[in-house]
Design brief:
Number of helices: 2
Largest sheet: 5 strands, mixed, barrel
Radius of gyration: 17 Å
Strand order of the largest sheet: 1-3-4-6-5
Order of helices and strands: EEEEHEEH
Number of strands: 6
Number of domains: 1
Shape: globular
Distance between the termini: 45 Å
Helix content: 10-25%
Strand content: over 45%
CATH class: Mainly Beta
Length: 143
Amino acid sequence: MSNTLKITAEGFVGDDPKYFVGEKDGKDYVNFRMAHTDRYKEAKSGEWVDGKTTWLSVKAWGPLASNIANSVSKSDPVLVEGRFTIDEYKDKDDLVHTTPTILADKVSFNMNKGICSIMRNTSSKASTSFEADEKSAQKASKK
């Protein structure tokens, strides 16, 4: 049995993913933030009410990172599955902050919230390099 806390989260991408080439352990990686707002139906009025919004950071490496950078944009509805952790960092005043983070194993579009198409990788080894021209072309084809 693993001691890893697995999590699946549903939400909307809060900012365009940022792709970093070889900056962490020599591997390419991507990170982005996602938000989930609980909604519930108020018993007395029967109206839907927005609850608290929870923000999570998402990180991914290798081929998954490249695919995210080439496919995911701000406001996209996504499902993220991975390991849950709390990242810590110090700000310029040396204060420690914490951020709930998912180390992603899978990221997919929530097709209850929209439609999408998929293009399979042409080989078993997905591209691990991010090319801005590819991202621009794919974004243009989404519109």
